[in-house]
Design brief:
This protein has about 280 residues and is an alpha/beta fold. It folds into two domains: about 30-110, Leucine Dehydrogenase, chain A, domain 1 (Rossmann fold, 3-Layer(aba) Sandwich); about 140-255, Rossmann fold, CATH 3.40.50. It has ten helices and ten strands. The protein has helices spanning about 5-25, 40-60, 75-85, 105-110, 120-130, 140-150, 165-175, 190-195, 240-245, 255-280, and strands at about 30-40, 60-65, 90-95, 155-160, 180-185, 200, 220-225, 225-230, 230-235, 250. Helix 7 links the parallel strand 4 and strand 5 (about 180-185). The N and C termini lie far apart (about 50 Å). The chain binds NADP nicotinamide-adenine-dinucleotide phosphate (NAP).
Length: about 280
């Protein structure tokens, strides 16, 4: 079966639009996300524009703060400090990637955890480990949405250990009683783990890296990879070959991506509700 993300993303968009309307009626204001874009990365700019469009559709305000490529940690930290104190800004997100002289993980830790809609700050990551999930990173949340919507259970191998994908996903799946193995570039004999798992999540960032020999006919493959080849987006999995052999697979584009872009706004509405409740 082809596990498409669009239907799930559309359903979540409707839920969020209704929640945003409801909150606006109660509070008299709209949830507002402030995106911080440092430098000239084209990918980061495209993602921020996409969020502005999606936010508008849902009924949230999205503002963009652009900072020059040569901004220092001190300068960006001071901007984050101002936005953190602004009661009209409910969510703050730093667009990835940032210029090499900046540390996105250090910057994320300056955002108050209840405005950290990217869910990558240490507090929100720790809350996953403590089984008290609050604002969870959108990509792992999208993978969880796919598995729960299609009712897919079993053992999981995640090929990624980054703070935006593999680590939080492992915690979130453990919280939902999945049995999880995490692999990475130093894992010897990767195929041994992928072929023997029911569910395999690939996020290595190498175009068409996984051929059919990594999977079994019973595999469910969730391809998180986004790679550009000749201006086309492809995943980590050789889709044409692998899709003929496995039980379930997500397409790229059209699988995890559309859900991820929507789930940032679920976090924004959660942040907004939390901040509104503290003011009552
Ligand atoms: P990252 O920080 O570079 O992490 C890549 C991970 O893959 C690392 O854990 C790395 O291992 C592992 N890896 C790399 N080559 C490998 C190999 N040959 N065998 C086994 N493991 C290998 O990247 P990221 O930010 O997590 O993103 C990963 C991919 O997901 C990218 O394609 C990115 O564009 C995509 N992504 C998609 C979405 C979406 O919404 N669909 C969102 C975020 C990211 P080490 O830890 O040992 O280096």
């Amino acid at each position: 079966m082809l596990l498409e993300g669009k239907g799930i993303a559309d359903r979540i968009m409707l839920e969020l639009s209704s929640a945003a309307r409801d909150m606006e009626e109660k509070s008299g204001s709209r949830p507002r996300l402030d995106l911080i874009l440092v430098g000239d990365d084209q990918g980061a700019r495209i993602y921020s524009q996409a969020k502005m469009k999606r936010g508008k559709k849902i009924g949230c305000d999205v503002t963009l703060t652009e900072l020059p490529e040569d901004s220092s940690m001190k300068e960006v930290s001071s901007i984050i400090g101002e936005k953190s104190l602004d009661p009209d800004i409910h969510g703050i997100m730093i667009e990835n990637p940032v210029p090499k002289n900046l540390s996105i993980s250090e910057l994320a830790d300056l955002i108050p955890y209840y405005k950290d809609v990217d869910g990558t700050g240490s507090m929100n990551q720790g809350l996953i480990v403590s089984k008290k999930e609050f604002l969870v990173p959108a990509t792992p949340a999208a993978v969880v949405e796919i598995l729960t919507t299609f009712g897919i259970n079993g053992t999981v191998t995640i090929v990624n250990r980054s703070p935006v994908v593999g680590r939080p996903l492992a915690g979130m799946l453990l919280n939902r009683d999945y049995t999880v193995t995490v692999c990475h570039s130093k894992t010897p004999d990767l195929k041994k783990y992928t072929i023997s798992s029911d569910i395999i999540v690939t996020a290595v960032g190498h175009a068409s890296y996984f051929d059919a020999s990594y999977f079994s006919p019973e595999s469910t493959v969730i391809d998180v990879g986004i790679n550009y080849v000749d201006d086309k987006v492809v995943g980590d999995v050789k889709f044409d070959d692998v899709s003929k052999q496995v039980k379930n697979i997500t397409p790229v584009p059209g699988g995890v991506g559309p859900i991820t872009a929507t789930l940032i706004f679920r976090n924004l509405i959660t942040s907004f509700r939390y901040q509104f409740s503290k003011r009552q």
